[in-house]
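Section 5.1 Outputs to date
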Amino acid sequence: MTGVVIMQKTVLITGASGGIGSACAAVFARNGYNVVLNYLTAHERVKALAHELSAFGIKTLAFKADVSDIEQVRRMIKETQRQFGFIDVLVNNAGAAQQKLFADITQDDYNRIFDINVRGTFNCCQSVVPEMIARKKGKIINVSSMWGVTGASCEVHYSAAKAAVIGFTKALAKEVGPSNIQVNAVAPGLIDTKMNAELDEQTIKLLAEDTPLCRIGKPEEVARLIHFLSSDNSDFITGQVISVDGGFSI
């Protein structure tokens, strides 16, 4: 009797050095996925993460690429395909935030926030979708934010960029749905990450008090939802924006 060969799936996680990105990497590795770790500057952190993930018996690839640069993204996708064959799951997690009064936002500020959060998501999706369409299979999860849902004072450009990710997600889901590709977004609330570590203690306390569950979230709580949306259990879920914010945006 011929044995059944089960191919390992591969996930590409952008911004893998951050709190949510590294938590996603760990969840996928524990579930047997080969993991591609995209990063831009945190080489040592990603190198250490790749070493940790190897304990799960999976393969990793750390790839430095600016997701806002389409040529760098294409090189990353090409190398991933060379080493692993297919990209089964794309997690667009790379992001940048900034708190600033609207009147003080410069063109450079605006361009940076939109380049990473929106253009980066666009570039990565456009680079992997053709192969997913050819295979009639694929999962894409875009990381937005609760501020993309509700808007945030002093983060107008960031809120607008994350809202754009939501619109992008809904539109792409409709276009690639006939090819059996599911595209969803998650909208995290205040999560215990390095990005939010810049907030002062009083601000974090106030935001936690405004959250019905009365606390900030953990990266692993976002990662588990992203993994669910990548699994067969989510095959009939697409074009959705799921908040992981402790009820903040209710």
